[in-house]
Amino acid sequence: MMRTLSRAALGGLLAVVTAGVAQAAETKIDTGDTAWMITATALVLMMTIPGVALFYGGMVRKMNVLATIMQSFAICALVTVLWMLIGYSIAFVKAGTFIGGLDRVLMMGMTLEGTHDLAATVPETVFSTFQLTFAIITCALITGAVADRMKFSALMVFTAAWMILVYCPVAYWVWGGGFLYDWGVLDFAGGTVVHINAGVAGLVACLVIGKRKGYGKEIFAPHNLVLSVIGASLLWVGWFGFNAGSAVAAGGRAGMAMLVTQVAAAAAALAWMIAEWMVKGKPSVLGIISGAVGGLVAITPAAGFVTPGSALLIGIISGFICYWGATSLKNMLGYDDSLDAFGVHGVGGFVGAILTGVFAVGAFSATEASPGGSPGLIEGNPGQVVTQFLGAIVVVAYTAVVTFIVLKVIDMLMGLRVDPETEREGLDLRLHGESVH
């Protein structure tokens, strides 16, 4: 009897083990990849709260610091809920050419062991949260262009509409299997989806809302650059999750992405510093941290496709060009991009997108290439440069048009800009009833 029971127990145990092995083989979840992606997700979330919040918060005047930090924090919460409701589904459920499907509305069908085609070795829960952090920071970056003058209520409505109508479709086109993916546009970690997208939206927003009162006549000096340095430092560290995490695995691709990210950021910081030193006679703290962010932006689309030597060149080129974009270009065209969202992210993202076509090397499998799995043999060549350029132009045009329409509708319904008295006294007290002493 005991022997019979033992055999039965052994048979049951073997059945459980066999089922577990079969399930593991089916899902292919790798604990190392999963651990890395959870870490990368936390790093990217840190880029917005507190990274962008402090980076932007330190650059505004003291009377607007809480309002600026509030924007990043509130956007984090709002985008998270919208991503869960519908954003993730229309961005990453493979369907048509222009927009994703609805199979993951309310995260329906999400299971403990389920995976996504673009991240076969990690749970879909982790992949979706990782992609959520990209949506959060993209929306938060836009606020830098309209600092000091946009209504908080209008910003919340704009963020909700813009995320669904602009961010999610563009993410699907490039990463989710849409037409830009089919064209072969390369964007390893978001040069197009995040930075060109946010930069162009910021430019349109500051043009529609108009300049700050006193712009060009008064000095809008940063109230606390220490906060901005801390924010920029958090962005730099968090960017390893942004770029190396976009390999969606803990392997050689992630390692190379990490290395080239560090090299490009450092090179761009030095390039901006040297350019400013030559033009103005003094290297500034604001300049060197802006240069580092510009280099991080430019290497983002290329991070999984280029060598360290190419990353050095990308950093140097982007450092000089982003300095020009945040100073000469802005002055020449006369727009008030308060914290240089377009000058750094729009310009840097465009430069990075083009240089990805110039420097990309190597043969990558679909799952190695990017979160969207850009396929095929990748070599820097004129054809790829043209593809990168066309992809960037499509995103610029779509983002500009839809952003303009959304802003105009909101302005008509509730107004975009705070009243002159609020702008003069500061958004902290007037909009939130709080202040920094």
Q: Could you describe the 3D structure shown?
A:
The structure is a single chain. Residues 1-25 and 363-377 have low confidence and may be disordered. Helix content is 70%, strand content 0%. The protein is mostly helical. The chain is globular, with a radius of gyration of 23 Å. It has helices spanning 2-27, 31-59, 65-92, 124-142, 152-176, 179-183, 191-209, 225-244, 252-280, 285-299, 308-333, 341-359, 366-369, 382-413, 420-425, 427-432.
Q: How many structural domains?
A: 1
Number of strands: 0
**Average pLDDT, to the nearest integer?**
91
Which fold name fills CATH's third level, the topology?
Ammonium transporter fold
- CATH 4th-level superfamily: Ammonium transporter AmtB like domains
Gross CATH architecture: Orthogonal Bundle
Shape summary: globular
Output the radius of gyration.
23 Å
Poorly predicted ranges = 1-25, 363-377
Structural class: mainly alpha
CATH class identity: Mainly Alpha
Number of distinct helices: 16
Q: What is the N-to-C succession of helices and strands?
A: HHHHHHHHHHHHHHHH
- Give the biggest beta sheet: none
Distance between the termini: 81 Å
- Classify the helix fraction into a percent range: over 70%
- β-strand percent reads under 5%
SSE topology sketch:
Elements (H helix, E strand, L loop, with lengths): L1 H26 L3 H29 L5 H28 L31 H19 L9 H25 L2 H5 L7 H19 L15 H20 L7 H29 L4 H15 L8 H26 L7 H19 L6 H4 L12 H32 L6 H6 L1 H6 L5
